Amino acid sequence: MEQTPYLKTEIPDNLVTITEKLRAKMQFLSDVQQAVAEDNDRLVYKLLNTKKYAALIEGATEAVDNQTESRLVSDIQDELSHHLAKHLIEYLQEKFPFFYYEEDELGVYQLQFGNWWDRRRFGILDPLTVNFIFGDEEYDMLAKSVALAAVNRRYHSDVIEDATRTNEGLHKLLDEQVARDEERRILQSEYQQLDDKRGLFQSQETKDRRTQVQARLSQLDALDEKASQVPELIAENNNLILYYSKEDTVLLYEQRAINETFGSFADFEHAVKNLYKDYVSQLPEKELGAEGGLLHV
To answer: What is the pLDDT of residue 297?
Structure first.
């Protein structure tokens, strides 16, 4: 750099470096543009993350990271996601036939599990990384239900059994109403007789018995009060049992769909983990056309 009275430096002019870096950026953008135009999804994935592509598709142990260039298209990720999703979802409908997708905004694909009633929203599909991003709660429920199925249990077995036992106790409370009424009639008669004996010289035994009878009558009143609420409580527990039974049925459908497609939950997890490699490697490997854009090297 030419010396001036206001600057002292030993660093040479870097015009060549600037030119080379700008050319690399323009080359990258040109390659992405042409790959998209030519429907060359495999190359798009390679351009978006050369290091990941080299490691998983080419088996390379070392590769140049091009995230600096990749950031040049960070502002059009939604558009790229929408573009790449077309062929990806065509592939997924064969490999994961129980998943359905809803693009609620450009390039954002909500993931639904199953085509049955009350199907669950299960996460999102990210076409840019070829990745399922499962919701933690939804995935944990499925994984736990798979583990419980191995011991003939369901995810909500405990809460359903608790509600069922509670209802059995409530029904018993209703069934004992006739016996309580009879007991109350007898105790009230006895209490009246004991009350007739009240006086200055009544025995301690009479006093104690009257206290016991009063206490038992109070208990019967409390049980009758609770019994009056039993129909509502039973209805609430029945709704609870129905709700969780439906959830367990949905989880059962999910397990069945996975087993019918993959054979086991472990094989399903393996397929999810290797989705990028399996999908991108089967895409046609094509060179860019010679026409248009910059010279591709």
So the answer is: 41
